[in-house]
Amino acid sequence: MKKVKESDELRPEYRREDLGQGIRGEYFESYQKGTNLVLINPDVAKVFSTEAAVNEALRTLINVAQKSTGLTTHSTGRAKKLRVG
Question: Based on the number of CB atoms within 10 Å of its own CB, is 47 exposed (0-12), middle (13-18) or buried (19 or more)?
Fold first, then answer.
């Protein structure tokens, strides 16, 4: 007799006993290594359908920003006076 496959859907309610014994600090090391989770707004998520698309757009933006800030010479900290006339 074959075993009936359990449903792949979420149950309406879970009991603590069903989840097994937790291990204190199990994910502490990976958390310390720095997992960055960033939530984006739904309107942005519609434009970028994948993680790769978001990363590519951000890398492009970083590249443009770095190039645009590198075009100026050393600043004296003062604005130059405009010559009139």
Answer: exposed
What is the value of pTM for the model shown? 0.42
The answer to whether 49 and 56 have CB atoms below 8 angstroms apart is no
Angstrom distance (rounded) from CA 49 to CA 60 = 17
Which tens digits make up the pLDDT trace of 10-59? 888 888 888 888 888 888 887 777 767 788 899 999 998 888 999 999 99
Reduced to 3 states (helix: H, G, I; strand: E, B; else coil), residue 30 is helix
Q: State phi, psi for 61 to the nearest 5 degrees.
A: -60, -40
